[in-house]
Amino acid sequence: MGTTPRFVSRMDQKPAQNMHDEYWHEHVDANQYPGFEYTALIYLNDQGLDYTGGLFSFIDEDIAKGQAKVETISPKCGKLVYFTSGPENVHRVHKVESGLRYALTIAFTCDKSKELSGEWNA
């Protein structure tokens, strides 16, 4: 298993400038980023202290009943969230209301053709 693209996200309350800035929509990582099989998020600052809003939610939709079960995580510096990147883990980040939210995203793949090689230079 190797890693695919890694990046630090910086989220704020400013209006989106392009499609990639619209982080608050429900999505599936494997659909958005081909090669993602597992996603790891490491939070670099604290929700409620460094920024407001910016919660992370998993959405488990029960289409037959027209209901959704939502599990919400409050980001804290150093907290790790790790999950499979497929349709079983639909998720979203709530809009940041004030301050700046930082998180490191590391994606893992089992596809050798998609993994990164060499050192990561930030």
From TrEMBL:
InterPro entries: OGFOD3, Pro_4_hyd_alph_FE2OG_OXY
Classification via Pfam families: 2OG-FeII_Oxy_3
Domain of life: Eukaryota
Residues annotated as domain Prolyl 4-hydroxylase alpha subunit Fe(2+) 2OG dioxygenase: 19-106
GO cellular component terms attached to this protein's record: membrane
Signal sequence coordinates: none
UniProt name for this protein: Prolyl 4-hydroxylase alpha subunit Fe(2+) 2OG dioxygenase domain-containing protein
Lineage: Eukaryota, Cryptophyceae, Pyrenomonadales, Geminigeraceae, Guillardia
